Amino acid sequence: MNVLRRNLIRTTVAAVAGVWLATVGVATPVFAQEKVTVFAAASMKNALDAANAEWTKQSGNKTTVSYAASSALAKQIEGGAPADLFISADLAWMDYVAGKKLIKEDTRTNLLGNRLVLVAPADKATPVEIKQGFDLAKLVGDGKLAMGAVDSVPAGKYGKAALEKLGVWSSVEGKVAGAESVRAALVLVSRGEAPYGIVYQTDAAADQGVKIVGSFPQESHEPIIYPVAILSESKSPAAAAYLDFLKSAKAAPFFEKQGFTILK
User: Fold this and answer.
1) 9 has a pLDDT exceeding 60
2) Please, which residues bridge with residue 212 across strands?
3) Residue 177 in contact with residue 194, Cβ under 8 Å?
């Protein structure tokens, strides 16, 4: 092999090696993206969607959320539906899931608080003084009072308790349109299918079709508390970090914007 040919081969090999080394040198490590599956009360949708977008931006991980009434979600978890976290709109349904040994007890936290309000279609909203014995039946007239199903949906249970405490439940019981979730009750009012509805303050903030006409006294019902916990069957490596994010100052503004109270 003559000198010229040997030099040509050496040059070609060196060039190929250089390209390979350069490629290796600038390559960015690729890490597997983690996903966290969340079962959350329907009333959390707007706030949690916004918080989750920030979580993805910060961590690179993603969330998949199923929103429904806490009762329905608890039953799905009991039935084996795969999820990593459960956020309930009341303590009772978290207690139910905990009683089935389906949560990691040491991760359970009371995350948020809320308020119960009376809403009306935005174009027909007149202030209502909610007090002992107020004539809600007359206000509703021949229409329906929209609220979550009073035997299962947390907002419905809180609403019934408040009306009983104020002495007006018996006068409106026959007028109640029980919905599968608080958001479904909100829609009935927003569309004008019900003249009044009982929902959370946060729901009213999420729908421009309704306006708050009155707030229920806090002493008329049990405190509205949203507990969160990681589920026992969770396999997501990112679940704990996601829960820490929800409890952090970085997530708080998204919840406060929708009217939630941060519980510490």
Assistant:
1) no
2) 119
3) yes
Residue 41 to residue 65: CA distance in whole angstroms: 10
**In the chain, how many domains are there?**
2
128 domain residue, yes or no = yes
In a domain, 12, yes or no: no
In terms of residue numbers, what domain contains 173? 116-220
123 Cβ contact partners less than 8 Å away, ≥ 6 residues apart? none
CA-to-CA distance for 151 and 50, rounded, in angstroms? 30
pLDDT by residue (tens digit) across 113-124?
999 999 999 999
Query: Does 162 fall in a domain?
Result: yes
CB 120 within 8 A of CB 214: no
Q: Are residues 172 and 251 in the same domain?
A: no
Residue 179 to residue 247: CA distance in whole angstroms: 30
Do both 97 and 45 map to the same domain?
A: yes
The pair of three-digit structure tokens given for residue 95, joined into one six-digit string: 């207690």
Higher-confidence residue of 19 and 162: namely 162
For 95-106, write each residue's pLDDT tens digit. Answer: 999 999 999 999
Task: Look at residues 171, 230, 184 and name the one whose alpha carbon lies nearest to residue 67.
Answer: 184
Contact 112, 254 (CB under 8 A): no
Considering the domain architecture, whether residues 105 and 229 belong to the same structural domain is answered as yes
Specify if 1 maps to a domain: no
pLDDT value, residue 33: 81
Q: Which residues on adjacent β-strands are paired with residue 200?
A: 116
